[in-house]
Design goal:
- This protein is α+β, with helices and mostly antiparallel strands.
- The chain has one domain.
- 31% of the residues lie in helices and 30% in strands.
- It has three helices and eight strands.
- The protein has an eight-stranded mixed sheet with strand order 6-5-4-2-3-1-7-8, covered by helices on one side.
- Strand 7 and strand 8 form a beta hairpin.
- Helix 1 crosses helix 2.
- The protein starts with a strand and ends in a 10-residue tail after the last helix.
């Protein structure tokens, strides 16, 4: 499960803790897998990120394994996750359904995520919060979690390599030894 985690520092325009959106892979393309986009609002912390990641994981579970659906969820810290899913059936007709993930389910999954990969979630939060992002760059880091069933074996792209690639891309690469 590939997830792009983005930070929106100006939470004024959104009353939610996070938004979770899915982007299915193209019909005839095995090169680009489906991806979830988690947008956090305000100051990130491990608990809020774990809750948003839990909504992404649970949206896959509640969608009966449909990889071709588009899902949109809002995550509220006091209400859970609420949104909808849409896909085309075998006849090509658009099918939509409402999604609601109870807060208790989100908290349970978030707790399991923090137990299994809490250190990595804290590193991701630290990476999104770093003050030395290049001017004008979106604060976004891609992670992969898998397999979804049981939420085991999380694999995160090494945070240091992501930040290093950003610095090099912006011409800000520097050596730390001997400086």
């Amino acid at each position: 499960m590939d997830i792009l985690v983005m930070l929106e520092e100006n939470p004024d325009h959104s009353p939610v803790l996070a938004h979770v959106n899915s982007v299915p892979s193209p019909l005839h393309s095995s090169e680009r897998p489906s991806r979830d986009i988690v947008t956090l609002y305000g100051d990130p912390n491990p608990e809020s990120l774990a809750l948003a990641l839990a909504a992404a994981v649970e949206s896959h579970r509640t969608n009966d394994g449909r990889t071709d659906s588009i899902r949109h969820l809002g995550v509220w810290p006091e209400r859970g996750a609420i949104g909808d899913a849409a896909w085309r059936d075998s006849t090509g007709q658009l099918v939509t359904t409402d999604l609601e993930i109870p807060l208790e389910t989100l908290h349970s999954t978030a707790k399991q995520l923090l137990v299994e990969c809490g250190q990595l979630i804290r590193r991701l939060v630290a990476g999104l919060s770093m003050p030395d992002w290049p001017e004008g760059a979106r604060r976004a880091i891609t992670i992969s979690i898998g397999p979804i069933v049981g939420i085991t074996a999380p694999v995160f792209a090494p945070l240091e390599s992501v930040i290093e690639r950003l610095r090099e891309a912006d011409g800000l690469a520097f050596e730390t030894e001997g400086d």
